[in-house]
């Protein structure tokens, strides 16, 4: 018997959550894990964690499915049909996905049902279509001297599945991030072992259910539960060919070092400290509400633009407008459709965020609004939406990924100064430029050292690559770019 949160309360349910290995749901052999709702601070489920031996069994199942099973050898069209059935199954589970997701993440309902669950389900259908595309291509013929005379040479470049993929996803967007790992790897013909954060392991059980219902061959998708010990085994296991990880830069570096011991491929989507440059001609009626959105999900998003780089001529007005809109961020039960602000995932996360705010004030930043815990709620790990003006660019609050609802303001006079401030970061995941002057925005976008840049907002598109430079990661996700990370090109040449 477990518990599931429904209509803002914790209720008992007969649903059993278990790891999924080689086509079967089986209890883990590890310790019992209690999953808590970050709003109610109450248990919503108890799940048996996987043991290291369970991970070994999952990798062995994925290895057998890769080396001996049909999945990598099916036609692209047949893989596409099975993935389409999985997408349909997830569509039918949408309501339960939404309930589980809001309960374990604390994401407020409007964001949860659209960005957290609805958009990823739509993208499952897109990955099913992308799986049918032929990415192989011919090598143009050429005349070559082989040492015995001139010969005609040519060949083919085949895109082959990389093999067994260990996919490790974070707590903040478990279903969204897992979609771009699991669906892309399956579309490439790989077998997958997935692990979610131990804080939010429930939603993606429904991916396993969809795999079983859609007829995905046993061993192609496996799901394990646990903490860092389980993750380490997934990375170091010699039967794994590729590790796809989303999370902190600190852990990403450890994964890269461990994977290097067996020369595994890694795809790392890591931290961010993105900058939003607001030029003096920006449409503030549109820009300021977009900047308010950087508080979304309690600031627990790697691509959020938490550094506001404002031109001196409009900085005061932008700040005044932001402060006027902050009251629209309503704390409360995330399942309530009127709630528009999320709690931090744990009490430790809340204290970490508050510590960064204190350090920013100590460094000389000016507190404009917020700055402390929200005390009007009876429970939950809340932090006020906080804005710090005239923040020193080298302060830790301006340099470190906080993962909380904290925005810092830097001011500039020239485009060169704005770019220098934006690039003054060890991260390089996202950036934004607000202006009515598109050529100027495009020129600035080319100078910002990030994997992606949005102009007048963030528009995620499955056909555009997502990922970072510098310490924000290696590789790309989304659509065909993400699928290619799970493929290895093989050249087959001939001479006549």
What can you tell me about this protein's structure?
With 496 residues, the chain is of the alpha/beta class. The protein has helices at 52-67, 76-92, 94-105, 109-130, 174-188, 205-214, 228-236, 249-260, 284-292, 312-325, 347-362, 396-399, 415-423, 438-447, 479-484; strands at residues 2-6, 9-13, 19-21, 24-26, 32-36, 43-48, 137-145, 150-161, 164-168, 191-195, 221-224, 242-246, 265-269, 275-278, 307-311, 366-369, 386-389, 406-412, 427-428, 431-434, 454-455, 469-470, 473-474, 487-495. It contains 15 helices and 24 strands. The termini are far apart. It is 36% helix and 24% strand. It is globular. The chain folds into two domains: 2-271, Aldehyde Dehydrogenase, Chain A, domain 1 (3-Layer(aba) Sandwich); 275-467, 3-Layer(aba) Sandwich (Aldehyde Dehydrogenase, Chain A, domain 2). The longest helix has 22 residues, at 109-130.
**Any idea what the CATH superfamily of the largest domain is called?**
Aldehyde Dehydrogenase, Chain A, domain 1
Whole-Å distance between the termini? Answer: 68 Å
Highest CATH level, the class of the largest domain: Alpha Beta
Low-confidence spans: pLDDT under 50, at least 5 residues?
A: 1-13
Q: Which radius of gyration do the C-alpha atoms yield?
A: 24 Å
Q: Specify the number of helices.
A: 15
- The proportion of strand residues reads 15-25%
Give me the side-by-side strand order of the main sheet.
Answer: 16-17-18-15-14-20-21
Count of structural domains: 2
What's the main sheet like? Answer: 7 strands, mixed
Structural class, please?
Answer: alpha/beta
Shape: globular
Helix content: 25-40%
CATH fold field value of the largest domain: Aldehyde Dehydrogenase, Chain A, domain 1
At CATH level 2, the architecture of the largest domain is 3-Layer(aba) Sandwich
Counting DSSP E segments of at least 2 residues, the number of strands comes to: 24
Give average pLDDT, whole number: 95
